[in-house]
């Protein structure tokens, strides 16, 4: 009896499965993997069936969803099929993975390594196919004169490289002072440390380790030394020094002579940079001499300022036109008296201190009249004028536009045992840029700056025409 019912149940199940049609998928994996940046192709083995499990009639199906193989992650594809108002769906998970280890390259020759792992003479780089440049993820370990580099990408793929090296640091740090190594400043001013930078081949920026010894007393004249030292982690030390020279302000007193005297003279102004020059001179109580011209009316008021601030306003030329003033004695005198009258108009003084355009030794005057300079130098002295040339050329009248070079030209020319008359031009910005450093040098070395007066030592060059 039991056997009968078992056979009957089996017959019913077979009958039901055979005649009860349904939709289903054959050979559909529920999970798959694909390497990043490779092509993913849909599974062609998948079959959609309409019927029963004993008999499959293939039908069309659609796949919804997309696998982005350029981005790691898990994507879902949905398979759908429909027949005779019957419909079914099934999901497939596709994971985009990265199994490729990053590349680790050493550029250069890796002979020695700092104790902290920094390479000397070589650099390293790590690049991953998915993460890109991951050099900042490189880790290292130093052991028994070996350095082992290791880098792991975001997917856990790891690359290791090992090198035999010498672990050492014998190089001293580099210590650079900001500003000048010799600083000039006047008594009473505040000393502000310009600062410094310390860089070590192994330790990197170690500016914070710099030790400064010494002090600057700006209340009195003197030469002060500051010593800067820095050590790296391995004990290598660098020491540099800065000299600070504190000097008094200019001690010029009208009528009082000084054996060590510098005469700053400025031709061709006043101009666009004269006011800035006056500000610098005032700061140091320095008096200078301005050999002025008259053709630029925009700066007339500066003639008054030059005079009122104690400078000498000398006569250069009204026109500064060689082709006019050097054609005859009369032409020169007309030009000279015209600039003299203009200076008197703005200073209320009749100046008789002059400088010839080009100096008394100029040869360009030969183009216009032979012997004109010989005649003019005698003539001006006969009628009470005094002319002054120079002993030091700053170079600003030529091709020198570098204020550092101008400073050097002047400093190289200054001598204790001679009259120091410096030729400069206040119409040039780079000249004015150099003046403060020249003053600082002079004061720090015991010189007095004075304006030219009718009683000053006469400086004449050889007349060549």
* Proportion of helical residues: 10-25%
CATH superfamily of the largest domain: Glycoside hydrolase/deacetylase
In CATH terms, what is the architecture of the largest domain? Alpha-Beta Barrel
Distance between the termini: 153 Å
- For the residues shown, what is the average pLDDT? 92
Short overview:
The protein has helices spanning 2-19, 274-283, 301-308, 322-325, 329-347, 372-382, 403-413, 429-444, and strands spanning 22-26, 31-35, 47-52, 55-59, 61-64, 73-83, 86-97, 103-113, 119-128, 132-133, 139-143, 146-152, 158-164, 166-167, 174-177, 182-186, 196-200, 204-205, 211-213, 222-231, 237-247, 261-267, 289-293, 312-317, 353-354, 386-387, 392-393, 420-425, 448-449. The protein is α/β, with parallel strands linked by helices and 465 residues long.
